[in-house]
């Protein structure tokens, strides 16, 4: 029993040693595999690190290329936008020029059309007046022929000499009436012509006022655009000066042995830049004052034109007063014509059926009195007419002299204004040498003095 137990134990021990040996072999084999796997893992890790480094470098280079391409695209897009803006500005300028030229052509065509309309109205009025004259002459000829026919018939009949004399007087009065009517028609024609000329002048004045308002609007728009451009230029100049100061900042260069000299140099550069900025601002201010003077010159020219238009308006008012005077004369002539018609009707009513010596005497005496009255009326009418013509000639001569004196006064005022402006330009003329230190001059006081001189010249 003991031997079997010992043999079993030995067999178990042998099996255990075999298992331990196999386990050691398996462990050794697993350790070798683990070492190989570790070596492979290290190799793969090194390869991965090299590849990642290569990839990172490629990524950085690609990023740099992408950034460079983006910058190139931005610069190209900026250039494209600048070209677009330039093209748009050129197109706007061309469009404005075309619109201005088109507006000028339209205004010229409108002026031609208005002139043609005025000529057409004048021709129509003259044609109408001529037709009216022809019709009136035809009516007068027909009336005269009928009167001659009636006179011839009455001559053949048995009539007395007094009736014939009355008939002759009646014909003379009718001829006087016809002449007065012709004069009245001529005055009416002249009145219509003056009214037509007045309406044409009013239309021309309205058109000139509209053109003046359009030109003033254009001048205001140009001035606003100039002010905006000047402000933008000043802002850009300020940015440029700030950038120059930042570029010349000595603190960004670090410390050195000559720090004090560098500080002094930087201070002198700042002072030089400030002096340059002040000089440029003074130049801009001088240019602005010169532009203001040019603008004042334009305003002076417009004011002188307005004075000329006021003189034309005064002349129109004088013409209207003369027209009213002529209308009063026409009304006086109409009253005299009505009196003559009443006298004719009274004569026709006082004609008797049976004649005797008393009626003939009365008629002859009344005829003599009426002839005296008509003669005195004619003399008074001719005298008044001569007086009116003389007075109108005197008034016209005085108006011509007055208008010539006004024109001479305006010319003298314009010459005086030009001399004052030349003097102001000479005073405002800058020195050609570059100033070491600019002196700020009292520009507003000088402008006020120039404006005061201009307004004194206007007054």
Proportion of residues in helical segments: over 70%
Largest sheet, described in full? none
Unreliably modeled segments: 252-256, 351-357, 431-459
The share of residues in extended strands comes to under 5%
First-to-last CA distance: 159 Å
Overall structural class, as computed from helix and strand content, comes to mainly alpha
Radius of gyration, in Å, reads 57 Å
Count, helices:
5
Order of helices and strands: HHHHH
Question: Got a strand count?
Answer: 0
Keywords: Cell cycle, Cell division, Centromere, Chromosome, Coiled coil, Kinetochore, Mitosis
Subcellular location: Chromosome, Centromere, Kinetochore
Family: Belongs to the Spindly family.
GO biological process, one term: mitotic metaphase chromosome alignment
Which features would summarize this protein structure in a list?
459 residues, mainly alpha, 5 helices, kinetochore, chromosome, Protein Spindly
Written account of the structure:
- It is built from 5 helices and no strands.
- The chain has 459 residues and is mainly alpha-helical.
- Helices cover 92% and strands 0% of the residues.
- Helix 2 packs antiparallel against helix 3, helix 3 runs antiparallel to helix 4 and helix 3 packs parallel to helix 5.
């Amino acid at each position: 029993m003991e031997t079997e137990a010992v043999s079993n134990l030995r067999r178990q021990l042998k099996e255990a040693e075999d298992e331990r040996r196999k386990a050691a072999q398996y462990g050794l084999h697993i350790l070798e595999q683990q070492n190989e796997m570790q070596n492979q893992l290290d190799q793969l890790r090194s390869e991965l690190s090299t590849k990642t480094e290569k990839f990172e470098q490629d990524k950085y280079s690609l990023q740099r290329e992408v950034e460079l391409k983006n910058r190139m695209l931005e610069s190209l897009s900026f250039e494209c936008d600048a070209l677009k803006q330039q093209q748009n500005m050129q197109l706007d300028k061309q469009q404005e020029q075309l619109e201005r030229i088109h507006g000028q052509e339209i205004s010229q065509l409108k002026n031609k059309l208005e002139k043609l309309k005025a000529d057409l109205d004048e021709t129509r009025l003259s044609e109408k007046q001529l037709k009216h004259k022809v019709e009136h002459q035809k009516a007068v000829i027909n009336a005269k022929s009928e009167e001659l026919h009636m006179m011839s018939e009455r001559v053949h009949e048995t009539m007395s000499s007094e009736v014939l004399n009355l008939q002759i007087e009646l014909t003379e009065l009718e001829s006087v009436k016809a002449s007065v009517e012709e004069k009245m028609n001529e005055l009416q024609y002249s009145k219509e012509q003056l009214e037509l000329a007045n309406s044409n002048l009013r239309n021309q004045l309205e058109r000139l006022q509209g053109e003046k308002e359009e030109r003033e609007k254009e001048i205001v728009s140009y001035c606003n655009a100039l002010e905006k451009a000047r402000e933008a230029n000043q802002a850009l100049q300020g940015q440029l000066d700030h950038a120059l100061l930042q570029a010349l900042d000595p603190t960004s260069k670090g410390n050195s042995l000559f720090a004090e000299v560098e500080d002094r140099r930087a201070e002198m550069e700042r002072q030089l830049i400030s002096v340059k900025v002040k000089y440029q601002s003074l130049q801009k201010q001088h240019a602005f004052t010169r532009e203001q003077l040019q603008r004042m010159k334009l305003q002076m020219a417009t004011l002188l034109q307005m004075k000329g238009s006021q003189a034309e308006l005064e002349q129109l008012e004088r013409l209207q007063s003369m027209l009213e005077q002529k209308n009063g004369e026409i009304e006086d002539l109409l009253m005299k014509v009505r009196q003559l018609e009443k006298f004719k009707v009274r004569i026709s009513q006082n004609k008797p059926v049976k004649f005797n010596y008393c009626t003939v005497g009365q008629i002859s005496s009344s005829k003599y009195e009426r002839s005296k009255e008509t003669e005195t009326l004619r003399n008074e009418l001719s005298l008044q007419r001569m007086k009116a013509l003389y007075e109108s000639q005197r008034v016209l001569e005085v108006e011509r002299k007055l208008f010539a004196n006004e024109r001479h006064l305006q010319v003298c005022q314009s010459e005086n204004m030009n001399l004052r402006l030349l003097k102001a330009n000479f005073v405002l003329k800058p020195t050609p040498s570059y100033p070491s230190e600019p002196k700020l001059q009292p520009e507003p006081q000088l402008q006020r003095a120039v404006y005061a001189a201009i307004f004194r010249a206007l007054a």
